[in-house]
């Protein structure tokens, strides 16, 4: 007799869940859909049916989290860290945070589900707000594929082919899988990431003060997070003083893969409108970008993740948890007896967690690192951007003596503006929120008299990325 609200990251996933549930329920009219692509009249009808309780299940995307329910009984959110579930427009809400607040205020059950687990989910469990649900290890082994990584010895034994897009081990796995069914190839998303790294070992250059990523500011190194200018930098891994700037870019590799497997049908699936929903069990190659992997009837025979080092070398704070999320989502599409080969080495802790299919242990490690680095969700953080932050920072430092402040540094997109990152303990979170609100209101009054505006982002996913 109660209503359920199911929120999915994309329109395509919401459509699939909606069609599945309509077949599941005897009365298909009990299930309604709410996305940005349905007509205005249909969305208003969904609003009324959810508001007056004539719909038992509401399936939607990010905007559905605000729908009123007459008899709420369950909130369900799939893949809570998907980028599409967070809005970068005012009021900068995330579907996860809204449902957490609604669940707490109304006393309604909330399920956060995915193949991966992040530090925020683990914190909810450790603070006894939620209960962790994980499969039995034996059942997990019976239902999942096997992650494998090419070791450095194996790459050296292959010689020059070990550094190719498709090493011999990957070619053998793909050809073996194509004998009985489809094979998935996962490639990095198109885009560019500017990285400063050691010229000797390739490790990313990080600040010795705050461990933030370094970048070239003219002829000198500058930390993008705290503004520190290291006079003499030495690599933390090999102590080399030689640095280089790298421009990591994912180029289209479809043609190269097609030439390597001539005569084999090749499908390309991208997130959004270019996504293929389902492929049959015929022998074919499916090249997919993250978030665009189609389901295969019976599962894929094997999967190969290409250029994983390009993903792992990104300097964003969310890099590790995003890799865990994307790799486990791709591995879940493989048959239980199948293999998932990662052609490049990544962080050893991440590798071991993937081999064991144990995102909980990696989330615990990530949470400990965030506690040490004063990052959310272990701390309450905020990113401030404006023309002059000295008065704002002085006000916050006066109210919160233990506050940690990095910056201000010139904004990445507009050097005329300054950016600062601040963090306080979770026990000071309510007072910190009220203080930020007071600063925002004061700035709004000054803006009417011609002063430039102040932008505040609470718990930014990537402090070094600043405000786009």
Explain what the structure shows.
The chain has a 6-stranded parallel beta sheet, sandwiched between helices. A 5-stranded parallel beta sheet has the order 2-3-1-4-5, with helices on both faces. Helix 4 crosses helix 12 and helix 11 packs antiparallel against helix 12. It is globular, with a radius of gyration of 24 Å. It contains 14 helices and 21 strands. A hairpin with a 2-residue loop joins strand 9 and strand 10 (220-223). The mean pLDDT is 84. The protein has 468 residues and is an alpha/beta fold.
Topology:
Layout: E1 3-7, H1 11-24, E2 31-34, H2 40-51, E3 57-60, E4 72-78, H3 95-106, E5 109-113, H4 119-126, H5 137-143, E6 146-149, H6 152-158, H7 168-178, E7 183-186, E8 192-198, E9 214-217, E10 220-223, E11 243-249, H8 254-260, E12 266-269, E13 278-279, E14 285-288, E15 295-296, E16 300-305, H9 308-312, H10 319-331, E17 334-342, H11 348-356, H12 359-373, E18 380-386, H13 390-399, E19 404-410, E20 418-424, H14 429-448, E21 455-458
Mean pLDDT: 84
Question: Strand order across the biggest sheet?
Answer: 6-17-16-7-14-12
In percent, how helical is the residue content? 25-40%
Low-confidence runs (pLDDT<50, min 5 residues)? none
What Rg is obtained from the alpha carbons, in whole angstroms? 24 Å
**What is the molecular shape?**
globular
Report how far apart the termini are.
45 Å
Q: What is the count of helical runs? A: 14
**Proportion of strand residues:** 15-25%
| Helix and strand composition category | alpha/beta
Most strands sheet: 6 strands, parallel
Topology, number of strands: 21
